[in-house]
Amino acid sequence: HAAAPTGSFLVTPAKVELDINPGETVSRDVTIENGTGSDATFVVSAENISGTRGGSETVTFSDATNTTYSLAQNISFVKNEITIPNGEKISVPVTITIPQNAEPGGRYGAVLVKAIPSGNASGASVSSQIGVLFFVRVAGDTGAKASLKKFGTKNNAYLFAKGDVPLQITFENLGNVHVNPYGKISIRNMFGKTIDEIKLDPWFVLPNSVRTRDVEWKMSGTFGVYRAVLEVNRGYENIVESASVSFVVMPWYVVPTTIIFIAAIVWVLWTRRTRAAGMQKAI
User: Fold this and answer.
1) Which of the four, 76, 135, 199, 205, has the lowest number of CB atoms within 10 Å?
2) DSSP labels for 20-73?
């Protein structure tokens, strides 16, 4: 936990995951640290979140209530406004109450902390907002159903001259509760030997959504054909899926040599063919 940078404020933790039974009430603290440079008042509110089908966005915010996965209406606070002296921090209790008749599955929301705008000499104002994600599993017969949708290079590129090799993992969740897939990517050379390994820490995928994760392999720049092999655990029932993609690394200084080499081969073949044709005519 680092101190809030000067001129800003810090809210922790970034994400809270809870398992709650129907009819149960649970409370967790959200900590706000004021580093704005002066005493400030902060407004606390709750909003629903959901995943997307596009894959590029982590979550989207929504004012809609009573949806399948909504949580905002179940979140309450003792106070919605808190004044915090500069340089100090305070813990704000967040209470979540799940109705007795709630169906099993996931409920998702965010606790938003907003600094009330402060005026300056020009009459303009500055405000910012930070959210803490709340993931709740309502106990019962939940249905986890997720799978690897795609693994490959970004934009389906297969030739790289320099820099990092961008890889993408697209994961789909068709269940009614979020999953936290994790795993690793092994980089193998043209002889099948593993030369590097990228650890994939758990990331979340919300229900009825698709999420794409970007990963980069910091290549050494050595010429050759490589294969990236993905092994990903779905995050439930210890189910592991695998996929692979091949690509070519050709540093810029190799390109001229390669072109000359190919041109030389073409010239030799053309010369031999021309000579052979001339000999046939002579005969």
Assistant:
1) 199
2) E-TT-EEEEEEEEEEESSS-EEEEEEEEEEE--SSBS-S-EEE---S-TTB-GG
| pLDDT per residue as tens digits for the range 233-261 | 999 999 999 999 999 988 655 555 555 55
Cα angle 110, 113, 119; round to 5: 150
Contact residues for 132 (Cβ-Cβ < 8 A; gap 6+): 11, 12, 13, 14, 15, 16, 30, 94, 110, 111, 113
How far, in Å, CA of 41 to CA of 128, rounded? 12
Pairwise CA distance, residues 91 & 110, whole Å: 16
CA–CA distance, 40 with 9 (Å, rounded to integer): 10
β-sheet with 146-153: strand ranges across: 146-153, 165-173, 209-217
**pTM beyond 0.85, yes or no:** no
Residue 187 in tokens: 């980089």
**b/e per residue, 229-239, with b = 16+ CB within 10 A?**
bbebbbbeeee
